[in-house]
Amino acid sequence: MKWNKINGIMVAALLVVVGTLWAARHLSHPAPPVLPGVPGGAEPAATNQMTGLDETVQQLETEHARLSASLLAANAENARLETAKAQAEHGARLFKALAEQATVQDQNPTNTYPSLRHLLAGIGKLTRLGAEAAAKWGNNVDPQKLPPAEREALFDAEAGMQAEFFRLEQAKKLLNAQNQETALTPETMADTASCYLYGLLDLDSGQFSQINGVLQSYCQQAVQQGLLQAAPGESEDAATNRVAALDQLNQNARAAVQTLLSSKQAELLGSEPLGDVKFVTARFRAPLIQEGE
Question: pLDDT of 43-69, one tens digit each?
Answer without folding.
Answer: 556 666 777 777 888 888 888 888 888
